[in-house]
Amino acid sequence: MTAPAAQTRSLSETAVREGFESRKHDTGFLVVGVDASTWLYECQAALNVRGRTHSRAGQNPELRTLFQRLSILSRIPVSLVFVFDGPARPTSKCNKHVYSTPHWLTSYFREFIEAFGFYVHDAPGEAEAELASLNASNIIDFVLTSDNDVFVFGATHVIRSPQDKKKRDCVDIYVMGSVGVKSAFTHAGFFLIAVLVGGDYDLVGLHGCGPSTACALASTPLARSLLHAATSLSDQELDRFLVDWREHLRHELSEDPNGVLKRRHQSLASAIPNSFPNPKVLRLYAKPAVTSLMCGLAPSAQWTKPGNLDLARIITLVEHRFGWGNDIFNKLLQYIWDGLCLRDMVKSCFPPGPAQTYLGPPAIRYITRTALKIESATAPPSYLVEVWLTAAMTVVAAALEDLHMSASHGSCIISTCVWVPSPIITLAAADRVDDFHESYRKSRIEPSAPYVPVCPYHDLAITAATSSLTDSAEIVVDTPSPIQCILENSAASSSTLPSSAANVSQSPPAIEDLMTLDLTVEHDPAISAVARNHYFIDLTVDDEVPTQSSGSHRSLGKGKEKDASTEIIDLTI
Questions:
Q1: Final residue before a domain boundary, out of 250, 265, 290
Q2: How does pLDDT run across 76-125, given as a tens digit for each residue?
Q3: What is the domain count for the chain?
Q4: Please, which contacts does 177-184 make with residues 24 or more away whose CB atoms are closer than 8 Å?
Q5: pTM for the predicted model, two decimal places
C-alpha cells in the first residue's frame, strides 16, 4: 500500500552521498533512529521457530544475533540512536495486556549498543511514536523500522528493506513530504487508514471497510480534519465534532461526490455505528506519549557526533556473553575491523577528528584494489585498504590480559583489508589514493549515472514542517451538507504527555504476525518462512567463519586481497 511512496536505494550509497558528501551535521553522519524494542522481540521470535532450540543455537543466540546486526550497521557511516519503549505505553495492544516488565535482553543489548559507539534513548511511551516525533521534528534524519505504526504516528523519512535476499544493501526509503498533499500517503492519510481498517489499538476498525476503500478515503479532507480534531480539540469538543464527521463519512461512502471511491458504498455507509470512531483510539494515535520538544531534547545534540567504538569493552562483553575464547581473533576479523576502520576514516575527515583512532589514515599500509562494491549504477567505487592492526591489537591484548586470557594466538595478526567507499578514503588519505593510481596505473572508476538525492538537500530540514502544514485542518460545519475543510497555514500543535500513564511493556507477539527481520544464521538456516512477511529487513549473517590457519591471518602483503574464506565478512544490509 505504501509502494507509490517508496524509492529503492542502496543504504550504503545513501549514507555516503547524503551524509558524508553533503557534510551532514558537519560530521558526515546521517542520524538514524531504530526501534530497539522491536529488534528484541523479533530476535526472540526467530529463535522460537518450531524445531529450533538454544541447545542447537549456541550460547546466548538472541543476544549474539543482536550483536551481529550491530556489526553490520557499524559498516555504514550513520549515527544510530536506539529508542526503547517507556513506562507510558498503552496498557493494551492488539487486545492483549501489555506487561510492565522490561524484556530480559534489554540490559545486555544496551551494553552492546553503547560499546559500539551508538546511542540509547528511552521513550516516555512507545518507541515508534517517539521515533516518528523525533523524525518529524528533524532531530533524526531517518527511522529504520519494520513497524507500520511509525507512519501512523507521523514519521516523514522511513527506511525499510525489500524482500530480495541477494541485495541486502537495497532498501526502500519513504519520504512522506514528497508524495503530495492530496495523496493518501501522508500523516493524516495513514492515521485515517489505521482508524478505518484497524491497528494495534483497535483490531476491527470500521467493520466492512477494506484497505482499498480506506486508502481512497485517506486522500480526502476527512483524513486531515479528523487528525486535526483528535490532536487539538478537548474531549467534549471532539465528541461534538465526531457527530458531524460521521455524517460526512456516510455521505462520502454513499454518494462518492468526489469520485475517489469509483463506486458507491451505501451498505457500508448505513452500517457505521454512532460509536465510531472511538475517541480513545483517536487520542492514542494522534497524541501518543512522546518527549516534549518545546525546550529542546538535550541528548540529541550528541547524536550527530558518532561515538567511539570501545574495543576493550567489546572484548569483555563478547567473552562474558558468548565465550569465544581463542576464536575471538577470527570474530574480530568477521565483525569488528571493517566497521571500526570505516568510522575512523570518516571521523578523521571532520574537525576535531577522532579522540582516539585505531584504523584511521595513519594505520594505512597499502591500497591494493579498486572496484564497484555497492550495487547501484550511481554508486561511487570503493578501495580495498590494508591497514595495520598494531594499535588495535595492543588494546585487544590488554583486554584479554584483564580477563586472564592469552593473546598469543593473535600475535601473528598484523593487518587486515577493508573496503572503503572512494569519497571517504579520497578525503581521508588523498595522497595514498593518488599513489595507488600512479603505482598501478589504474584509471579512476566513475559511476555510470548521476546520483539523485532521496530528497533535495535543502528540503530535508523543512520536510517535517511542510508535512505538518499540509496535515493541519479545521472543519467548519454549518449544515449537514458535504464536509468543508479549510487548510490552516500553521503547524499542528505539539503533542504533550498524558496526565497519567501506567507502567507497561510489550508482550511477545505471535510469530505469524511479525513484520520481522530475516535473522537466518549459518548454523541452522532452516528458519521457516512464517517468520517473515512482505516487509522485513534482511540482516542475514553467518554465525561461523571457516577456521583459518594462523598463516591466513598474517600480513596480506602488498597487492593481496582477503582470501575467499574471508569474503563472508563483507556483510551489508
A1: 290
A2: 999 999 999 988 887 667 656 566 677 788 999 999 999 999 999 999 99
A3: 2
A4: 177/455, 177/459, 177/463, 177/464, 177/466, 177/467, 178/5, 178/455, 178/459, 178/463, 179/4, 179/5, 181/470, 182/219, 183/4, 183/5, 183/219, 184/215, 184/216, 184/218, 184/219, 184/223
A5: 0.78
